[in-house]
Amino acid sequence: MTNKITQLFGIQYPIVQGGMIWCSGWRLASAVSNAGGLGIIGSGSMYPDVLDEHIQKCKAATNKPFAVNLPMLYPDIDKHIETIIKHKVPIVFTSAGNPKTYTAHLKQHGITVVHVVASVKFALKAQEAGVDAIVAEGFEAGGHNGRDETTTLCLIPMVKQAVQIPVVSAGGIGTGRGMLAAMALGADGVQLGSRFAATVESSANQAFKQEIVKAKEGDTMLTLKEITPVRLIKNPFYQKVEAAYQNGANLEELTTLLGRGRAKRGMFEGDLEEGELEIGQISGLINEIKTAGEVVEDLVNEFRAAQEEISGIVL
Question: What residue spans of the chain are helical by DSSP H?
């Protein structure tokens, strides 16, 4: 399977693992890369010394390309960039900020830069900033999300029409059929977060993984748009947020309710009551915990089967 994304990243399949905080350590990233996709270390939940350790362990565990996801709101981002450059990480995915800030600097060191966006407007800004590709993430995605609530079905063809650089589709993709659909819409590759969060190699807490498996249609919701939009499982903490909205809570009250460390409590420590459980709508189709390699294999097999199935459709 060869296209713009496989050639750009030097990978076998145009399958990218999301760089999720608290879920995407070196074990997951190396497993996905070894299976033929692009594994990503999620640096947003790591101190600089922890990222250094994960990069070294990832390099020891795979000889395939891997990436680091770099949220640009991270307070020690300069230290993360130093670490990435020091270890010659080949690919960086930037998010949650202005791509102009660091793209040129990273590319001067031979690093391929990809930026995550949720709208055509920011896709164009990312292209103008000189990134090599973009991830267009629809409203279905878990975790932090776009305010405009544009679905993947609408976002991908609009972004593809607007830019000349390769486009990776994200949000609501967890199966080979979903992968084929995204590429039929114009995507050059797909990024999956939720499906890889519920894998053996994911660093997420086992209790959180089981909540992903248990989740059904309608069990997640995008909320806290006044602070940073985030899609959560409807656990007791989410219900407190909804109650606050019903009582007319203002921004200060919502910020106080959120506090600090909610995502770590829920996703990494397994506090299913008071933690944030960030996951996408595709969780309704995730029914078991598999290895990352099995997920990649399933995606490829389902993609090919779906491709064969629709090849006989004649209009």
Answer: 4-9, 26-34, 48-61, 77-86, 103-108, 120-129, 152-162, 176-184, 194-197, 206-214, 236-246, 251-258, 262-263, 292-311
The predicted-structure confidence for 254-288, as pLDDT tens digits, reads as follows 999 998 889 999 999 999 999 999 999 999 999 99
DSSP-based three-state secondary structure for 105: helix
Q: How far apart are CA 78 and CA 162, in angstroms?
A: 31
Tokens linked to 279? 């996951």
Same domain, residue pair 130 and 233:
no
- The answer to whether residues 77 and 123 belong to one domain is yes
User: Which structural domain, as residue segments, surrounds residue 229?
Assistant: 214-282
φ, ψ dihedrals at 111, nearest 5°: -95, 130
104, pLDDT greater than 80: yes
| CATH number of the CATH domain containing 26 | 3.20.20.70
Residue 199 burial by CB count (10 A; 0-12/13-18/19+): exposed, middle or buried?
buried
